[in-house]
Every structure is written in structure tokens, then in C-alpha cells.
């Protein structure tokens, strides 16, 4: 089992829809969780961090964490073509940061 | 502006050459990292440093070397021992340790000719 798993996609949603990106992780003791956005040919940029169970909202983005299920998700409301990118999930596992392979999202106008 | 800079943006290496990638940060962060990213794959940790004059190997350190003589700088050398160095190299930093939020530089794309 990979330490951090994401569906590679591509995930395609129409403009204005909600995009839902999922991530599972292997370590029940993990405490820190991060979502990064990476445009093609560019470096990852931080979208959100989440540390407690439940939802955390920032603008059109909502991160959801369920430690019992070892699951973290990112919802993007009112998706825009500019949201088309690869989204990386990162989880703190045993004092290391582990990254998923990313989910490629395409928002169609 | 505070941030992380990497140079060069593009780098071409001939077989048997060593090349050095630069990474500088002015965020006053203690920890710095080097990752390698291959197409369609996640980030793999090469080396990291949590304090000046100290660094640790990551998952794929073979064929790479680093130094941390200054807090602001963490250069990566890709040696001729690295058999498949063509990749996108990302430098990151965090305020303190490996569990803290990491911020990335713009990356260096290395191609072996």
C-alpha cells in the first residue's frame, strides 16, 4: 500500500460545478495534511493545510479531514477553467512529508 | 519579496558531467529540501537539511550530493553516478522541521543530452 494515494484522473468537470478530489493515507498517527496545486511545468503552490477533523473553508476551496477513515479531500466550488491543474495531497507520516502522485483536474468551459 | 529562488530554470548535462543546481531562500526558514519529480509521478525526496552544516538522505539520495554552509542556501549536485538524472528538480523550505508546511521554488528542469 502506498503511503499517500490519489486517483490519478483525469477528473473532468464542467465550469461552475463542484470538483471533488480525494486522498487516502496509511499512517493513523498523521497529524498534518496539505493540498497543493501544480500547473503544468510549474512548481506546487500551497492551497490549504488542515490539522483537525472536519471541514476547513477558504474561498471556493474546502478541505475535509476524517482521521478515523484516513481520508482527506478537497472540494472546489464554482470550478473555473483556471482551476485546471494537478492537485497534490501531502501528509506528514512519521516525521516525513509524503506526497501523493496527484490528481489531474480539467475544468471544461 | 520573500521567497525561494532556483537557478537555472533549464539545465542540460552531457553524459559524465556533474552539475550543480542552486537554491536560495530569504524566508529565514530553518529547513530546506530537494525533491525530484518525474512525469506523472509524485515528489520523491532526495536530501533535506534542518540546520546549517547538517543534512540527511531522503529516499533517492544515490548519485546526488548537497551542502548547507549557509541558512539561506542549499545547492544540489547531480553527479555522474546518477544514471537517469533527467527530471524536474524542486527545492522547498519550511519554517522548522519536516512536519511543517513546505513552500516550493520555481524548479529546475534538467535534461541529459
SSE layout and pairings?
The complex is a heterodimer of chains A (109) and B (113).
Chain A: E1 4-6, E2 11-14, E3 19-25, E4 33-38, E5 45-50, E6 54-58, E7 61-66, E8 71-76, E9 85-93, E10 96-99, E11 103-108
Parallel strand pairs in A: 2-11
Antiparallel strand pairs in A: 1-3, 3-8, 4-5, 4-9, 6-7, 7-8, 9-10, 9-11
Chain B: E1 4-7, E2 10-13, E3 19-25, E4 31-37, E5 43-51, E6 54-57, E7 64-66, E8 76-78, E9 87-94, E10 103-104, E11 108-112
Parallel strand pairs in B: 2-11
Antiparallel strand pairs in B: 1-3, 3-8, 4-5, 4-9, 5-6, 7-8, 9-10, 9-11
Task: Explain what the structure shows.
- The complex is a heterodimer of chains A (109) and B (113).
- Helix content of chain A is 0%, strand content 57%.
- Chain A is an all-beta fold and 109 residues long.
- In chain A, the strands form 2 sheets. In chain A, strands 2, 4, 5, 9, 10 and 11 form a 6-stranded mixed beta sheet that branches. Chain A has a 5-stranded antiparallel beta sheet with strand order 1-3-8-7-6, with no helix packed on it.
- Chain B is an all-beta fold.
- Chain B has strands spanning 4-7, 10-13, 19-25, 31-37, 43-51, 54-57, 64-66, 76-78, 87-94, 103-104, 108-112.
- In chain B, strand 4 and strand 5 (43-51) form a beta hairpin.
- The mean pLDDT of chain B is 94.
- The chains are: A mainly beta (109), B mainly beta (113).
- At the A-B interface, strand 5, strand 9 and strand 10 of A face strand 10 of B.
